Amino acid sequence: MTTGLLITTAGQAAIAADLAGGADLVLSHVAFGDAGGVPYLPNEAQVALVNERYRAAIASVAVVAGAIVIDAIIPADTPDGSARPSHGFNVAEAGIYSAAGTLIGVAQMSNGYKPPPSTGQASIATFRFKLAVANPSAITVVIDPQAQIAVGRQVRPFFMVVDGVLNAPPGAPAAGATYVIGTAPTGAWAGFAHRLAQWVGVWALSTVPTGHLVVDNSQAEGATARYLRRTAGGWVSAAASDAAMGVIRMATETEAIGGSEAGAAMSPATMKVAQRAHGQCQLRYVGATEIRLYLEGGDIVRVAGKAVALPAAGVAAANTAVTVNGVAAQNLAANTEYLVALGLAGALEFWTKATGHTRDTTAGNIGVEVIAGHADKTLVGMVATNASSQFANSAAFRGVISWFNRRSIDLLGATTPFSTTSSVGYVELHGPSRIYFLTWADEAVDMKVAGQGYNNTTGFSVSLGVGVDGVFQGISGGSYAGTGGQSSFTSGFSANTLSEGLHYITPMGTVGAGGTGTFSGAAVAVIRG
């Protein structure tokens, strides 16, 4: 049923004030009454209905031929916000009210009877009112789409597309432009925070039920605020999390490896990548003042349960102005062993070897080797400085090793310069012939000493053997030779029980019961990573 409206004196004043730039006129409700049983002709002086029986939220609004067209519905059951119970009445009068409580327009109705459900009858009536004003766009209308749902006229889509979240109405909106009203609205939207505003020639302000979702086209695809959900307190991101159901997207490989994106799901393929990605690096010697963590088979190292992506050039560290034992801007000490770790910031740090390392048991980082007591420092290598507090890497001093992607390392010492001894027990023949090396506790070291020797006394032998850290290892190559005689021999030894850290191998020699032995030999070794 379509009905014209008589604009009241108070309504005319409110419209004129709005058009003149004064207080915004916001239409919010339609009231229906029974005129006290005596139908009448409306008059401009009215400020209320004669006998209001039901008040309905505005269900929809449009601008047609310069007039504001408003729909209101009387449902089968008619309790309302005024706490009136469901009841039957003759619909003899109707009025449109503003949000401020002003009767803007009044209409005479047909006096048809609206029965209550208790009579066994169910009647749903839709009424359409036309309000002719000079500039409809100056007026705002609050609607309640749930009223339409109640009569089956519109099924609300689960997703609704909006053009943004604003606090102030835009100056020249396109037809159909829709916005989420922010937390501090102004102008025609003042007092209507969190509602939906749609431009239909006037601003139609819609209440939104808790749980409703919208898509904000002003936000980039993948942005946290692109999908919004209505809550009791306003609008929040609709992205799924471990605390709330919501919109979810598939994680990228980088996100899956990092494990820090709570709003993305993993496919079996990305899960497989995430599970295997760790230790894609190798610590190497660059120069006396630089080591570098290079990429090896990828670029990921897991730190504190997150994936740290190494830059293409790797991560460098100097022997000065570095972090040592958690203290920044320190210089490395001379002749000192350090564990090298990678932190969450992607920088290398040094920890004295005595700090130790351990396999982490923290959820999300289980099995990762870390500095003891520091689960956010992933072990990547070990260094031993020389007497100049610098890094060293030569055939006789292997002072940089990697925890990841280990390879066999060769060592070769200088030849002893015809060293002599009269000792009947094994002694080191020549200190400068030592070969120094770092090793992890789980590595094996194959070592040997090869050379020549003779005893200056006929009938006495000479023997050449391998020493580790100055201690003879129990296997030797020996010979018996007279005065002026010379023998060649090799002594070999394989160790897989060396403690972690810096060791040295040295040629050791002995004579029999007498005489003096003369030796020329060198130590060689291979660290099997």
UniProtKB/TrEMBL annotation:
Domain Phage tail fibre protein N-terminal: 5-150
InterPro entries in alphabetical order: DUF2793 (IPR021251), Phage_Tail_Fiber_Structural (IPR051934), Phage_tail_fibre_N (IPR022225)
Pfam families tied to this protein: DUF2793, Phage_tail_fib
Full protein name: Phage tail fibre protein N-terminal domain-containing protein
Species of the source: Bosea vaviloviae
